[in-house]
Write a structure and sequence with these properties.
Blueprint (H helix, E strand, L loop, with lengths): L1 H20 L9 E3 L5 E3 L2 E2 L2 E5 L23 H14 L3 E4 L9 H9 L3 E6 L12 H18 L5 E6 L10 H8 L21 H25 L7 E2 L1 E3 L13 H4 L10 E4 L14 H8 L5 E6 L54 H17 L4 E6 L25 H6 L31 E2 L3 E3 L7 E3 L6 E5 L11 E5 L1 H10 L12 H12 L3 H5 L4 H5 L22 E2 L57 H16 L1
Parallel strand pairs: 4-5, 4-12, 5-6, 6-7, 7-8, 9-10, 10-11, 11-12
Antiparallel strand pairs: 1-2, 2-3, 13-18, 14-15, 16-17
Helix pairs in contact: 1-15, 2-12, 4-6, 5-6, 9-11
Amino acid sequence: MRSAALLLAVVAFALGVSLALGAATATPNSVVVNADGTMTVDGAPFKIKGIAYSVVPVGETERAGVEGDYFTADYAYMWHRDFPRLKAMGVNTLRIYSWGEAADHTAFLDTCTQYGLHVFVTHALGFARDHPVRTVEQQQALAQGFADEVARYGDHPAILMWSFGNELNGWWLGFLGDFNVAYSCGWNTRQWWDNNGCILSTTPECLVAQDCIYSHYFGWIDGAIALAKQHTTRPITATLADVDNIVGSHPTTDLLPRFMDNMAHFDAFAFQLYRGQSFYSADGTSYFSQYGAEAGGKPLIVAEYGVDAMNDPCGWPENYYMQPCKVWSPGQNGQPGGTDDTGAAFVGCSNPSLPCRKPGVSAQAEWDASLTGEIMTAPHTLGGFLFEWHDEYWKNVETQDFCETPSSVADVAANTAGIELGNAYNKTTNSAGCTYKAHITCGNSDSTYHDICGYYLESAPDQYVNEAWFGLNGVVDCGDMVGTTHHLTALTPRPVIKAITVVYGGEGGAAAVQPTCAQLRPCYQCVTGHTAQEVAAGQCTAVCKQLDVVQPGENGSTGGSDSSTGGSSSSSSSTGGGSTGGSGGSTSSSSSSSGSNPPVVSSSSTGGNDGGDGGVDPSGSAAGLTPALTTVLLALLAAMIVV
């Protein structure tokens, strides 16, 4: 009996530890970055066919509320809306950008495993203003936080890789500035043309400052990766922006070859690349060959790429001197540009040979498909993540070009007309404080409004980037919410979906049909009407699995176009985002809603790899445990009986 009690205690301890940590039990599956620059998963060749999966709904923002963390069981209705469509498109890996360190994400990872999706997890660091790194203690705290997060999930089978931060070498985040102060490097954070700035500069003075700041900075990042590697066998990297000559054709001044020794623990390099319609230049030189010559044999991950679906006249060559932007609703109100031709004759830029001559969704489909095809066949490359799954309105809050005193949307037409009369938005008067090529309503904090905030970029199809329009899908606000959160959003696919399905080798078909608001509601109401524990235990699995295949509905979900053409609200009363496809405007609420309950691991779960919708094992293993762990526990119980 003493032996039986001991064995029973072992079983209880095993369950208790898993529940307490919310971490996945280590599994024998493997992810290996090979010496030849390829990747294998469980011994089979693997190419990342990825999508940037940030799913902030209409009416919410990443800067408040759950801060972009829609990866707890509270939001399972989103995954069931998306995962069947992603698989039908041929996607095999999601890149996520942020989740709260205090929350449990096992249900999300388990659901990914059920649908055969892997995850590239970005450990968000935000801005230096929120997480300063001016002291060694502050630097160590952020590195330890990353290691602790990796330890929580170990080798969960859904996790493909980890990334320490996003765009960490972007000076706009403030981390480089903190290191400049901490180590007295004398690095001028301005652009090379602005008062002897060091960004993109190769002057002797700036190279010396770079030696100081980047050796310390990349060394810190590398140390964080090394610390996290104590807790997982998964490859780890840090995602970097394509700025400040990090890769090029000048190895004596390019950052990557100069600081390779400071990044020894990186398993691959992950760069976000927005270089135009092709990674190949007119003379045949490719970014991939430049990278291969400077990367020391380590493979590349294209962590972001793609173009937005808005054709914004503000960037057109004939409007080069337009400052600020005077077209406030492209494709509407008699204005040129826009996303697509909705029946009236589309008006593009004047040069018929330029991509700005086409509707935005057409250029998006062509460019994204071309870029994806190049990545899939590129040497030294593990794959890439197309940006992004659906439009996110909150991205109008902070953009590169903005006005310190933005116009209200209600007054934008009048204020635009007044620019020529010398009002506050006139570039000479400019008492509104508008930067170059700003839309005068920007930044716009109204996350229910599909604004066109962005910035000039010569390599974009229309030479303008509209931050809230990168989605492969447009969005429709269904009108449902719980309090001020859990805004239900339906998606309307753009032509790029079909184009990428071909490149990724997806099956398309019935599983590709996007559900309408009405079709989404049963799953949504079940999830928001139960606690996170109940959802993680599988309470809503049956009803949500009905979304795997749906019949064509009414929100434009079967077509290849988004009915919104810019500058429009997506509320149920708006014509900008299409019809709600159901009884929009209803509010779902429940006293037991997961919106008011912290995510907790289900008592029926080991916090591990049950492979079901947040806790239900499709193989039928007992108590929602992984097959491997179930086998071990059954063996222990059998031994108890024998004893």
